[in-house]
Design brief:
It contains 13 helices and six strands. The protein is of the alpha/beta class and about 280 residues long. The chain has a six-stranded mixed β-sheet with strand order 3-2-1-4-5-6, sandwiched between helices. Helix 1 crosses helix 2, helix 2 packs parallel to helix 13 and helix 8 packs across helix 11. The two termini are about 20 Å apart.
Length: about 280
């Protein structure tokens, strides 16, 4: 059993801005949603046997992390034409028969981390593939059992690949991000510590809690706060048995969605894939 975990929010952004190159700024109401559904359907069609699949999505942008750090990312800068496609994506995926995790208190990344942990602990599962280029998810990679896939760049990274890219092993990714910051998530890291220095420190001492007191000094508490922001939660109770992720075909309600999105071919592809 191979379990595929998809970052639905990332895919929605990717397809929304990808479409703009061809639509000359005239956004289709469901354009990005259709793009994500096509991506997921392609994954189903490419499997030689049953497909085990889950999609995580940010039902709202803000999470518990906004209470920890006021400058953490919000939905303020998201264009309305994109934002209004968030909830239709969840509904359309569910109608297509795909397991969806709409996150509110936690983020989509936390759902992916939790799903990866649950699936990887099941003896039926041979591999877990997390489909996102987000560096946060690199912390979830485990040996060759849990891998990270960047579908756009066609790269697959196991634990060795993560170390080659970032300079540290997957469990130290939150520590690395705490030190160097993450502009996309809105926290700056520790002033005066660049990527090269951070890698050297982490490979010498391990996690930041093990650093000698003189390394971070008064900045230790800030580093721990940023590490807390960067650490993905793995305890979301998403499912018990990976078998529940098996795609069994679209629901009867998907026909209405395909019509509403003006994408009848999606229904045809679903029916063919289910056969």
């Amino acid at each position: 059993m191979i379990v595929h975990l998809v970052d639905g929010t990332y895919e929605l952004f990717r397809h929304f801005y990808g479409l703009r190159r061809f639509t000359k700024g005239k956004d289709r109401p469901y354009g990005a949603v259709v793009g994500v559904l096509q991506t997921v359907l392609q994954m189903i069609e490419n499997e030689n046997s049953d497909t085990y699949l889950g999609v995580a999505a940010d039902h709202v942008i803000e999470s518990f992390r906004n209470r920890l750090w006021p400058d953490y990312k919000t939905g303020a800068g998201i264009e309305r034409e994109l934002l209004v496609q968030f909830h239709p994506l969840e509904e359309a995926l569910a109608a297509m028969g795909v397991v969806v995790w709409p996150m509110i208190e936690l983020e989509a990344d936390d759902a992916l981390a939790s799903a990866a942990r649950i699936a990887s602990e099941d003896e039926q599962v041979q591999k877990v593939a997390i489909w996102t280029p987000d560096k946060d998810l690199a912390q979830c990679v485990r040996d060759t059992l849990v891998v990270q896939i960047d579908g756009r760049r066609k790269t697959i990274r196991d634990a060795a690949g993560i170390r080659e890219k970032f300079g540290v092993d997957p469990p130290l990714i939150p520590d690395l991000l705490a030190l160097v910051g993450d502009a996309a998530d809105g926290y700056p890291g520790i002033p005066g510590i660049g990527a090269r220095t951070a890698v050297q420190l982490l490979n010498r001492y391990g996690q930041i809690e093990n650093f000698p007191s003189n390394v971070l000094g008064e900045r230790s508490d800030l580093a721990r706060l940023f590490k807390n922001l960067a650490t993905l939660r793995t305890d979301a109770p998403l499912f018990d048995d990976p078998e529940t992720l098996r795609w069994r075909g679209a629901t009867p309600g998907f026909a209405a969605w395909a019509k509403q999105m003006e994408a009848p071919y999606l229904l045809e592809r679903c029916e063919k894939a289910a056969r």
